[in-house]
Design goal:
Elements: H1 3-13, H2 19-31, H3 33-51, H4 60-76, H5 82-88, H6 91-106, H7 111-124, H8 126-166, E1 173-180, E2 189-195, E3 200-206, E4 215-223, E5 226-235, E6 243-247, E7 256-265, E8 278-282
Antiparallel strand pairs: 1-2, 1-8, 2-3, 3-6, 4-5, 4-7, 7-8
Helix pairs in contact: 1-2, 1-3, 1-8, 2-3, 3-8, 4-6
């Protein structure tokens, strides 16, 4: 699972992916169990954050009733409310308690004994509530950072997608996410957009480690009826381990079933060598 995939999962949790990005993420979720777990956790975190948002202010008559009840208990010296009011000044905690008590008063329950018990429980749980709030805020900060990074990348991909639409090939494209088969390359990312009608595609690589001086990355395409992989050319990455290349297999591929990237002799080979390790493959 890569940093880019984590960012896409974060965007998915807050419904910020467009149709094309969701299509890519679904393809990756099918092949990466860890990514599926992360996506589920992020969705749960987003739901919890939503529950922490301030609720609508209670009706004025309920608020007045609530304040009268507090004054009655203060005169009776049942419980000191100093700590409680400090809690109620917190936006999400205070209004949550006020709303709860307003509902109790509205339905005619006996407030005296129940209110005392609720306040005592709230005071005991204050530390836990603050800890949970801090944890939620930390998750929000992490999500905001991921969203900012993902937004920047999303803008880059948006330009590429618009170019594809202008060339009238988008309707014929199939998006495939390749999965690392060697641990050393697990941080890398490889996504292929294939146009079977034009017999060409585009490969985007990120975070690829450099190969030896006498080696090159090489892309292969597998046809459903042809067991032998067909070369789609050598791939050169920049100093950051990134590349965006348009490729075309050396032979026709009537029905592309699978793609793979291997490490071969410099300049590439005509036929897949036995000693050239396959580092990415997909779909599974």
């Amino acid at each position: 699972m890569t940093e880019r995939q984590e960012e896409q999962a974060a965007l998915h949790a807050v419904y910020s992916l467009d149709a094309h990005e969701r299509q890519i993420l679904r393809a990756e979720l099918r092949t990466d169990p860890r990514l599926r777990v992360l996506a589920a956790e992020l969705e749960e975190a987003a739901n919890q954050i939503a529950l922490l948002l301030p609720a609508e202010a209670p009706p004025e008559e309920d608020r007045a009733l609530f304040l009268r009840r507090l004054k009655q208990h203060r005169r009776a010296k049942v419980t000191s409310f100093g700590t409680t009011f400090r809690i109620l000044r917190q936006p999400w905690v205070g209004w949550a308690v006020a709303a709860c008590l307003a509902v109790v008063a509205w339905n005619g329950y006996r407030v005296g004994h129940e209110l005392t018990q609720e306040m005592e429980t709230l005071i005991k749980n204050e530390s836990t509530a603050r800890s949970e709030a801090a944890s939620a805020l930390s998750k929000v900060a992490g999500l905001e950072k991921n969203l900012a990074d993902a937004t920047e990348k999303s803008q880059q991909f948006a330009g590429e997608i618009n170019n594809l639409k202008q060339m009238n090939v988008f309707a014929h494209m199939e998006v495939t996410s390749l999965r690392a088969t060697v641990r050393k390359f697990e941080e890398g990312a490889a996504v292929i957009v294939w146009d079977n009608e034009k017999q060409e595609g585009q490969l985007k690589l990120e975070k690829m480690p450099p190969v030896q001086a006498n080696r090159d990355y090489q892309l292969w395409v597998f046809d459903k009826k042809n067991p032998a992989p067909i070369s789609a050319g050598v791939i050169k990455v920049d100093a950051r381990g990134m590349a965006t290349v348009t490729f075309k297999p050396v032979e026709p591929v009537p029905s592309a079933a699978k793609f793979a990237i291997s490490i071969e002799a410099i300049g590439g080979v005509a036929k897949k060598s036995a000693d050239g390790p396959v580092i990415f493959a997909g779909p599974q």
